[in-house]
Amino acid sequence: MADVKSLECKNCGARLQFNPSQVSMTCAFCASEYFMEIPESEEQRKEKENAELVLFKVDKEQGKKIFSEWIKKGLFKPNDLVSSFKHKEFDGAYIPFYRVNSDAVTQWNGRDKFEVKSAEGDKPAVYEYKDRSGNRSDSYKDFISVTHGLDQDEVDQILPFDDNETKPFDQQLMMGYKFENPGVTKDNAEETARERVKNWERDACSSLCDELGSTSTTISNLRSKLMMLPIWILVYLYKNKPFRVLINGQTGKISGKKPISGIKVLIFILIILAVIAGVVVIAKFAGK
Fold first, then answer.
1. What pTM value is reported for the model?
2. Cα of 226 vs its chain's centroid, Å
């Protein structure tokens, strides 16, 4: 495996590794065939060699079945989608993530709202407010994608991965699959994880009172580990437009994009408007 080369896709920026003996080199993320070779630093090589692997449990045939069921679903998909789409690429790939563990403590303040007088006629209800504050704490484990090929929002849809049965980094274990080098630094991944934890803490605090004011979150005991996680990446074409689907190679969880039928959306809106109009008419006659 010493001759494996790191290539960057000129279309989407993914940094895949290929063996020069491969006859065809196609990007698993966007199906492009345009690459440029990029150097790999000694630091990057060492960090990758210390990474951990989560192995594929879902094989390609299982992945195809999962996709076949998924593509049939969808209220707004075109009627001819199942019969006319074309497979472009379907690759298994080990994608680089940082698993980031951390502890968080948040101080929050807000207020609760109490109705002291109900609305009467044209007079609105009267409310009083009581200030609230408190602390909450939690522990987090997050998987931050460090690939240029996939967005974090995209991979969030197929999380989580079970990392209780990991293997040390070994290219032999990844034979038959594509794999990508990290395209984001460890520091940037940890900063992303910090911001996500702060957002989760704010969401959790908002459930503790009626109106949340400010929050102050302290993150401690942060530790991160580079991991190579298994994902099936499928690119299909509908009317020559590419759509990407991801399947968790460990659990089979699937997420992706489908084309939308404008006619179906219009009909749905018209039905909703008709229902609303019917309710208004009924209410008008009931009031007479």
1. 0.78
2. 18
